Amino acid sequence: MPEGKLCNRTPIKTDEQLKLTLGDKGGKQYYEEMNHLDVDSEKLWATIQKTMKSRIKTWLEICAHCGLCAESCFLYQVNGRVPEQVPSYKIQATLGQIVKKKGKVDNEFMQMCMETAWSKCTCCNRCGMYCPHGIDMGIMFSYLRGLLYSQGFVPWELKIGSGMHRVYRAQMDVTTEDWVETCEWMAEETEEEWPGLEIPVDKVDADIMYTCNAREPKHYPEDIAEAAILFHVAGENWTVPSEGWEQTSLSMFAGDWECCKDNVQNVYDAIERLKPKRATGTECGHAHRATVIEGPYWVGREDGQPPVPYVHYVEWLAEALRTGKLKIDPSKRIKEPVTLQDSCNYVRNQGLKDVTREIISYIVEPGYFVEMAPTKEHNYCCGGGGGFNGIGKYREQRNMALRKKMDQILDTGCKLVIAPCHNCWDAIRDLEEEYEIGIRWSFLKPLVIKMLDVPEHLLPKDE
Amino acid sequence: MFKKILLATSGAPSTFGAARVAFDMAKRYGAEVIVFNVMGVPTKAFSQEVNDVRTGEKIEVDDEYRAWVEEELKNTFAKQIESVEFSKMILTTGVPHREILRAARDEDVDLIVMGASSGESSAYRMGYPGSTLQRVAKAARCPVMTVHRETASYWGGFGNIVFATDFSKQADNAFKFALTSAKELDCDLTLLHALDISGKVLDQNSIEDELIATRKRIRDTYVPQMGDFKNFDIEVWEGVPYVEIVKMARERSADLIVMAHHSRELDPEKARLGSTMEQVILRAGCPVVSVSKPDKV
């Protein structure tokens, strides 16, 4: 059958198409149409020839099928250690076959690939550390997702997610006006408690530009207020852009490469326009991966770097605490066993493991911090990474995936989990909802604000 | 003074009292009622799924669902909607306190009326600490009226207002609201301070000295602002503040208690415990208005 009305090879580019797809509750019609979606083998093979570079070719070739990656995959561990969950098998049976067959695969095969790419891999890249050849199945799965997306085989929510980015240049329907209005609102709501606090929009030549996740203006604008409080107390000369404020990239999860590039370009344009000395973003893992780690390559920057140094929020926070711009009242430090979730996207992928621990050293009373096992770059995915959290079709598999993190947290004996990543935060929240193990979880911002030693001149006058 | 009233309701019986008061006020004073409902609380990362605020069930909000909720609310408040001249309905999804504040700001309302359900709905408590009321009262630019007990909602217009002060900056705003209401609606106004002696053993003379001093403080602080308004009296009662405030309201057959909200505690869970306002709301036999900001008084 030709392409469906909702499930097709064309990205969502208009608000109308977006609403139409959204209106299809749970993607019922969408997935039904998918059953009849033809594979355009010619186009698929042409895409592969054009985009599959030597690294992935080599990886597919040299995999010795030794299976050493098996135990490294948390999804293998929690799913009864079945061979179908061994990373090398997962990628060879999907991408490997598509390449071998020069794109001549059928609908059923593509649907199997979709299920594998989005419910059996979170692109956490842990396997790459354990493969004797350094083969990173996570990277290959990201690539496979791109191929699948281009053929229309992508989970409903992610088709919508990248559609949101294309239509609104944000992962949710937040317009520029909504965003600027939200900043004003939050400044208004916060300035009484923090006299002089501002959220400067489009200030040129600031020391640091802040970007965030559209869910914040949409549902939790407190997060923006919290960021503002910390910048304010630290005395930062900061700004947010009116355009290019959205740092996340659901299109990366979806495999919508064209849109990925646009996401990043939009942020970089803001940097070029406002000329900040540096940039930073909210406590989000994948946004950082998209904008800072992979983004420069997507937009074709030869140095592989964003236009200005772009630090993760934890780097900014650690620096502010280290240099004394923010001071912690030692009596308010956390005095209960507390553990830390390492976000794959900036810990394993960028090596920021020590930065988060430095923050811990300032905000947790010595002796109360408990590491998960394994930890740092060896830590496991939260269980909901790579888009897994948001896909209704794979909810059961996702809930199963949460078990690894649950066991890790239970083993620490902690009731409080610090999760400086939107996605990890969500997964841990869902984990509690699903398994009720009696834990609390938090971003860093609200914790730090509670324990700040605020200089006299920043406090409200009459109190 | 009440041109636009935002009635925040889940549609559950625990908010019927608030609805009764909101519509009665609108009818009496010719105001517009905006019936505001948060259909669901976002869940599951970026998916479209939300938890229904009442049942906790996972739903996807589409036009059909929206129409159904609208119909339900219309049926629930049918008679009341008919009784007022202007009303409209706003349905949305999001975190309740945030969406109430957003709507109040967008619509520039003069008063938010809501129930103070003590129901701990797990549907949206996950990850969002603190009660919806606590968070709305803290940040709203306009006064927030709460109606908790059933008896508080059988109300026949304002005649007696009790203003309870703790002399804070926010209490000044609350006082202005109480005074304006008393003037415009022709009410008696009681200015009360509840002297907190809970947990202390004090010598009676020093209690009495303090009562006298506080009386003077009320007189010095508020009376100069009264102008030609004469229907007021000043009381200072010693005891546990929330008990004294509720007792005074009963004694005066008050139909409105006005207080300041100004918890400095950032952690809403902690602020909630022991908050005088929260306790008064739970116990009072009349609507309670909390005022924090000076904008709409």
Sheet with the most strands of chain B?
A: 12 strands, mixed
Greatest chain-chain interface? A-B, 37 and 25 residues
CATH uppermost class of the largest domain in chain B: Alpha Beta
**Whole-number mean pLDDT of chain B:** 86
Give me the strand/helix succession of chain A. HHHHHHHHHHHEHHEHHEHEHEHHEHEH
Weakly predicted, low-confidence segments of chain A? none
- Percent of residues in helices of chain A: 40-55%
CATH architecture of the largest domain in chain B: 3-Layer(aba) Sandwich
Order of helices and strands of chain B: EHEEEHHEHEHHEEHEHEHEHHE
Shape of chain B: elongated
Radius of gyration of chain B: 20 Å
Number of strands of chain B: 12
CATH 4th-level superfamily of the largest domain in chain B:
HUPs
- Looking at the structure, the CATH topology of the largest domain in chain B is Rossmann fold
Instruction: Give the CA-CA distance, first to last residue of chain A.
Output: 71 Å
Report the span from N to C terminus of chain B. Answer: 9 Å
- Rg of chain A from C-alpha positions? 22 Å
Global structural class of chain B: alpha/beta
Structure description:
- The complex is a heterodimer of chains A (463) and B (297).
- Chain A is mainly alpha-helical and 463 residues long.
- Chain A has 21 helices and 7 strands.
- In chain A, the strands form 2 sheets. Chain A has a 4-stranded parallel beta sheet with strand order 2-1-3-4. In chain A, strands 5-6-7 form a 3-stranded parallel beta sheet.
- In chain A, β6 (416-418), α20 (422-435) and β7 form a beta-alpha-beta unit.
- In chain A, α1 (15-22) packs antiparallel against α10 (156-168).
- Chain B is of the alpha/beta class.
- Chain B folds into 2 domains: 4-128, HUPs (Rossmann fold, 3-Layer(aba) Sandwich), CATH 3.40.50.620; 157-291, HUPs (Rossmann fold), CATH 3.40.50.
- Helix content of chain B is 40%, strand content 24%.
- Chain B has 11 helices and 12 strands.
- In chain B, α8 (204-222) links the parallel β9 and β10 (232-239).
- In chain B, α4 (96-107) packs parallel to α6 (132-139).
- The N and C termini of chain B lie close together (9 Å).
- Residues 121-129 of chain B have low confidence and may be disordered.
- At the A-B interface, α10 and α20 of A face α4 of B.
